[in-house]
Amino acid sequence: MRNFFILLLLLTAFVEISQSASKFCFQPLRKGHGGKRCKAVMRWWYDSNARKCKRFKYLGCGGSSNRWFNKAECRKECMS
């Protein structure tokens, strides 16, 4: 019975952590593509394997939604 409660507690904690992070945080890094109307800029993405935000050069168009304007925004969405 004790093991059941421990398992339930761990499962609840896992669900809570999973729901707190944005669904975009677990998308793979896709830098997008360039073009006439696409301006390359530096952005941040969340590396879910390393569990940290990393900087990358976004090519301006397309790409994944795992893309944040700054490190603070990335951390707020994916690490809180």
Automatic annotation (TrEMBL):
Signal peptide limits: 1-20
CDD domains: Kunitz-type
Alphabetized UniProt keyword annotations: Disulfide bond, Protease inhibitor, Secreted, Serine protease inhibitor, Signal
Domain of life per record: Eukaryota
Record bears the keyword Disulfide bond: yes
Gene Ontology CC, one term: extracellular space
Gene Ontology MF term list: serine-type endopeptidase inhibitor activity
PROSITE patterns assigned: BPTI_KUNITZ_2
Species for this entry: Meloidogyne enterolobii
Gene3D superfamilies recorded: Pancreatic trypsin inhibitor Kunitz domain
Domain BPTI/Kunitz inhibitor: 25-78
PANTHER family for this protein: BOOPHILIN-H2, KUNITZ-TYPE PROTEASE INHIBITOR-RELATED
Stated name of the protein: BPTI/Kunitz inhibitor domain-containing protein
Subcellular locations according to the entry: Secreted
InterPro entries the record matches: Kunitz_BPTI (IPR002223), Kunitz_BPTI_sf (IPR036880), TFPI/VKTCI-like (IPR050098)
